[in-house]
Amino acid sequence: MTRKTPTMWQVAEHAGVSQATVSLVLNNVGGSRVTDATRERVMDSVRALGYRTNAIAKSLRSGESGMIGFISDEVASSPFAGRLLKGAQMLAWETGNVILNVDTFNDPSLEAAAIDMMLSYRVRGVVYASMYHRVVDVPAGLESVPTVVVNAQDRAGQRLSVFPDEEGGGYVATRHLIEAGHTRIAMINIQPPESTLPAGVGRLAGYRRALDDAGVAQDEYLVRSGMGIVEDGLAQTLELLALDNRPTAIFCGNDRTAWGAYRAAESVGLRVGEDCSIVGFDNHDMIAPFLDPGLTTMELPYEQMARQAVSSLLTGSSMTPDQIPVECSLILRGSVASAKVRA
């Protein structure tokens, strides 16, 4: 036999108060004259009866559903970009909201359907996220709802965009090698020179700025391009290590490239963290901690970006178009040695 859902009237009867008092307590209405003792009695009755508020009815009255939309290309199914969704979910839960998530896999029809669904649920706002840092065109369907772009940048500049500080990360990574005494520092980027993707452009700019600030001469022959894959890291590092005046350190544009650099060093009899130093980018949790030695790398601020986006939606600050780069953190492991003790 199906158990009937208890009503607010039954809660009121159980607590010995009016239905209006129960409503004031459950909706946490400020300025009401409900005493603490009465409030506690109502909540005891709620727990005893197993009462649940009707979220749909509440949203119809208030115009807010307590839901925040999260639309992305494929963040939820990505091994480490999924931390964006985690960050959004955690802050939403902490503030009494929930995330309504859809991965669209870059299908325009699925994206349009997701937007229609979220608007029908009266979401408080939408996080429009990307698996990787890129420039995006925000769908016209989101014009009527507060929206924050995350791990990407709004091409039109009309939406608040929260993204990694790629240049700052490249600067910190290179500066760490300089502070270890290295002046012959190579960089293997993750995209071709003609690519305009923000990650590679920013990380390379940070590398160059760090060298300039330290008064280290730039050698264009030490700047290499790849596609962010292990094979490119292997091939480019083998070429760099074959130079007569080879680099003593390599800044790799991502951790997969760094993995390839490790393999190259090992193949020519060099020990990373002793004979050469390597810094990566991403702090990929399936790669960086498990290389030998562990890879010193820059961590992308996935959770921080998502939390900032949700916070902006909840406070209303998302209505001001702006660009907010979020700092990447240096994660120290064993892949960097002082240049002074280089074998």
Summarize the structure.
With 343 residues, the chain is an alpha/beta fold. It has eleven helices and twelve strands.
- Percent of residues in helices comes to 25-40%
CATH architecture of the largest domain: 3-Layer(aba) Sandwich
**Widest sheet: strand ordering:** 2-1-3-4-5-11
User: Helical stretch count?
Assistant: 11
State the end-to-end distance: 78 Å
Strand content: 15-25%
Main sheet overview: 6 strands, parallel
The strand count comes to 12
Global mean pLDDT: 90
Structural class: alpha/beta
* CATH fold group of the largest domain: Rossmann fold
CATH class descriptor name of the largest domain: Alpha Beta
Description:
The chain has 3 domains: 8-53, 434 Repressor (Amino-terminal Domain) (Orthogonal Bundle), CATH 1.10.260.40; 67-164 and 302-327, Rossmann fold (3-Layer(aba) Sandwich), CATH 3.40.50.2300; 166-300 and 330-341, 3-Layer(aba) Sandwich (Rossmann fold). It is 39% helix and 18% strand. The chain has 11 helices and 12 strands. Strand 6 (185-188), helix 8 and strand 7 form a beta-alpha-beta unit.
Q: Which descriptors apply to this entry?
A:
343 residues; alpha/beta; 434 Repressor (Amino-terminal Domain); Rossmann fold; 3 domains; 11 helices; 12 strands
